[in-house]
């Protein structure tokens, strides 16, 4: 119970930290950062997602979702895939359904689109317009 009280105190003392989309692996109540985890036993799933990505850049349409119970490595799997996409020159976007956002049914999608808008703001505008126009024509 004291941990919950401590977390609530942190939220009250610094609400901006908890009201924005952040990489939660960088937050810690102890002041230290989480150690990056290594993925084990998800190579089949990672290969499946990579194959779907390769098909999509070849022109096929598709959708990949990652689901499961808490603590099964969904976020880690998504982040590993994100590294692959980024290394390939792609843009990786992810959304996560947060229990605190249950009253907002499309919070994960909104967060993902917000993430993409942030990327667009940082890119060269002329280049961005060309990329968007090309994708809309495809």
Q: Tags for this entry?
A:
single chain; about 140 residues; mainly alpha; globular
Work out the strand percent. Answer: under 5%
Per the principal axes of the C-alpha atoms, what is the gross shape? globular
Radius of gyration: 18 Å
SS class: mainly alpha
Give helix % range.
40-55%
* Low-confidence segments: 24-35
The ordered H/E elements are HHHHHH
Average the pLDDT over all residues and give the rounded result: 76
Assembly classification:
single chain
The biggest beta sheet is recorded as:
none
Spatial gap, N to C terminus: 54 Å
The number of helices is 6
| Strands, total number | 0
Give a quick summary of the entry:
The protein has 6 helices and no strands. It has helices spanning 2-13, 15-19, 43-57, 74-87, 107-122, 125-137.
How does this structure look, described?
The protein is an all-alpha fold and 138 residues long. It is 54% helix and 0% strand. The chain contains six helices and no strands. Helix 3 (43-57) crosses helix 4. The longest helix has 16 residues, at 107-122. Residues 24-35 have low confidence and may be disordered.
């Amino acid at each position: 119970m004291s941990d919950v009280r401590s977390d609530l105190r942190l939220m009250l003392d610094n609400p901006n930290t908890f009201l924005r989309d952040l990489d939660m692996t960088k937050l810690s109540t102890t002041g230290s950062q989480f150690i990056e985890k290594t993925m084990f036993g998800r190579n089949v799933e990672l290969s499946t997602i990579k194959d779907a990505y390769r098909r999509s850049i070849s022109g096929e349409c598709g959708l990949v979702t990652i689901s499961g119970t808490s603590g099964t490595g969904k976020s880690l799997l998504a982040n590993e895939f994100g590294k692959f996409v980024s290394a390939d020159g792609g843009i990786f976007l992810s959304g996560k359904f947060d229990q605190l956002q249950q009253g907002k049914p499309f919070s994960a999608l909104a967060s993902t689109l917000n993430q993409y808008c942030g990327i667009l703001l940082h890119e060269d505008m002329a280049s961005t317009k060309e990329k968007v126009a090309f994708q809309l024509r495809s």
